[in-house]
């Protein structure tokens, strides 16, 4: 059996639910139906318990060894009862002893508390507080010293939180885990016009190395062990270069169509530049191309392109280094005095937003920060935690409890499955 | 796996060319791979049915989960729970920035007791304390000029079900504040014969379960609230009952603080501290004769005959159990 770290976290065939915000996990969560354990006579009780424990354990701390979890498991399930002060003031309890019963109540789902001891673990609490995109990533943060408990660095992911413990995660790590990933080519995310396969490759980096590996592994065809072919040399990513060329030619085209007062020579130059850009684009598509060669040639062509119009030239040279959107089509800048009150307010808001959330290329995530994709369906904070997102800190208030009609342990399956799993861990099998 | 046609190492290049001209429909497809490695194996299809279904789902029904709900609030797979198969887990509301600020102001600026704030707003006692503690950290960061994760906070609170409090008005409670833990001793069924004429109260029930057990009235986090409700039932004016509740809450908090202070002081007095250049040594008096009834009490100091000493045993978890 492969080690836990080598197994794939997200799969589409025979899916398992995981403590993760991956889109694969979301899809699996959406399509998973009730496992219907114990509804047919086909399975023995042992088999039912085995299957129930399997589906739950793959969600609850799959990175934790079974032996460790068995040690953690407790048959004592915590619950609370609501004592309404007004009712308690009006009655002394003897009305209950009168023997009339209290009627049918909602059940207290004790069995859903089977994995409650797991929620005490530091790494899982970090995931529950939404500071990491998966329990494995939370564990990674802990191991790498990004987490403090009561102000002291706690490097053990298996530390069991006590009621009242405060844990803090390094804000940069949290922003990295929950933000959009940085794109490989440039500083920001590309515009919406993208090929669909491209979309699938842009896996959120925060998903953890396992997930990325899994996604890649499913796409790369296997190498036939019998053939003696040399594996191909690793390809350099030519996409950014291609995009730069495409952007440039687009700008040249807009200049050609919009500017009426271009001289004939300038127009000729621009058209010849377009031609050369086209051939360069074809060159960039070849397997032998390197980004530096293409960029050098591109710069040479721009230099040869004799433009007397300084602004157009500036726009071109600027965009050859960075991939800016259409610069020449922007309206001319106005001074602040020209703005009316509403525009001023909007400007102030923009400045404030930029101050709070600046673009910073040194960060390992996309800036300005934005929440990662497919995050909102996973967004909840259980009641036993109190979280302050501003300082990326949370307090573990108490152990999770069950109450009438609800249990606080976030678990993907219902009462029956949890009950069978609980019975499995009672070790009377 | 698609069938593999074994490559013939003996085949000359000319015969390979001839062969390729016969199977012309294939050659146009697998030309790049042929050129790369002389392999006639057709490349594998890149996408499985499962993967295609997944991609299709992402574009159709899953599209609305990609970004947060544009109106704000939760965006779950099921109506009220992130887990469609477990309706018994609910995503509860969390307090927004304004509510947290209000609680912090009441406790730290106006000096109200935690119990009074908890009872007024309907927020769990431990939660009130935690909110104040976290707010203090936040204010500390601001005063030190450390950058807050404001954008992250806004985005997360935009995805969660929220609860807010307005200052100066009566707010609806966030949660039940007077909950008690269900004690293990009360989880068994008892056959307890009593006279029919007897008023068998909560006090008696507690005694029946265990001799030392306190009644529910004493175990709740807000016994003062029950007293206030009794006052109200006795036709006391609401203002007076409220004033009495607040003074009782103040007194109980003062007592708790005093108790904690005395405990810390006792601990301090029992420890002898010796400061050196590098360490501070702390010595405590321990009676090695106190070893329990059978001489094997688990928490006593020293080595005991016949009892395993787990301090340095290999394979045992030695991570701390608490951080002071």
CATH-assigned homologous superfamily of the domain at 23-82 and 105-177 and 380-425 in chain A: RNA-binding S4 domain
CA radius of gyration of chain B is 35 Å
Widest β-sheet, arrangement of strands of chain A: 3-2-4-6-5
* Spans of at least 5 consecutive residues with low confidence of chain A: 186-235, 308-313, 318-328
Order of helices and strands of chain A: HHHEHHHHEEEHHHHHHHHEEEEH
Domain RNA-binding S4 (chain A): 120-180
Protein name (chain A): RNA-binding S4 domain-containing protein
InterPro entries (chain A): Ribosomal_uS4, Ribosomal_uS4_CS, S4_RNA-bd, S4_RNA-bd_sf
Region (Disordered) (chain A): 177-242, 313-338
Task: Label this structure with key terms.
heterodimer, A: 429 residues, mainly alpha, Structural Genomics Hypothetical 15.5 Kd Protein In mrcA-pckA Intergenic Region, Chain A, two-stranded antiparallel sheet, 8 strands, elongated, B: 324 residues, 12 helices, 5 strands, 44% helix, extended, Ribosomal_mS45 (chain B), Ribosomal protein S35, mitochondrial (chain B), rRNA-binding (chain A), Ribosomal_uS4_CS (chain A), Ribosomal_uS4 (chain A)
What do these coordinates show?
- Chain A: InterPro entries: Ribosomal_uS4 (IPR022801), Ribosomal_uS4_CS (IPR018079), S4_RNA-bd (IPR002942), S4_RNA-bd_sf (IPR036986).
- Chain A: Residues 177-242, 313-338 are annotated as: Disordered.
- Chain A: Keywords: Ribonucleoprotein, Ribosomal protein, RNA-binding, rRNA-binding.
- Chain A: This is RNA-binding S4 domain-containing protein.
- Chain A: Belongs to the universal ribosomal protein uS4 family.
- Chain B: This is Ribosomal protein S35, mitochondrial.
- The complex is a heterodimer of chains A (429) and B (324).
- With 429 residues, chain A is mostly helical.
- Among the domains of chain A are: 23-82 and 105-177 and 380-425, RNA-binding S4 domain (Structural Genomics Hypothetical 15.5 Kd Protein In mrcA-pckA Intergenic Region, Chain A); 239-321; 339-369, no CATH class.
- Chain A has 16 helices and 8 strands.
- Chain A has helices spanning 23-31, 45-57, 66-72, 85-90, 94-97, 122-128, 135-143, 171-178, 196-201, 209-219, 239-258, 264-285, 291-304, 310-321, 341-356, 415-425, and strands spanning 80-82, 147-149, 152-153, 165-169, 385-388, 393-396, 402-403, 406-407.
- In chain A, the strands form 2 sheets. Chain A has a 5-stranded antiparallel beta sheet.
- Chain A is elongated.
- The two termini of chain A are 24 Å apart.
- Mean pLDDT of chain A is 80; it is low at 186-235, 308-313 and 318-328.
- Among the domains of chain B are: 26-66, no CATH class; 68-177, no CATH class; 200-269, no CATH class.
- Mean pLDDT of chain B is 86; it is low at 7-34.
- In chain B, strands 1-2 form a two-stranded parallel ribbon. In chain B, strands 4-5 form a two-stranded antiparallel ribbon.
- In chain B, helix 11 runs antiparallel to helix 12.
- Chain B is mostly helical and 324 residues long.
- Strand 1 (80-82) of chain A pairs antiparallel with strand 3 (179-181) of chain B, so a sheet runs across the interface.
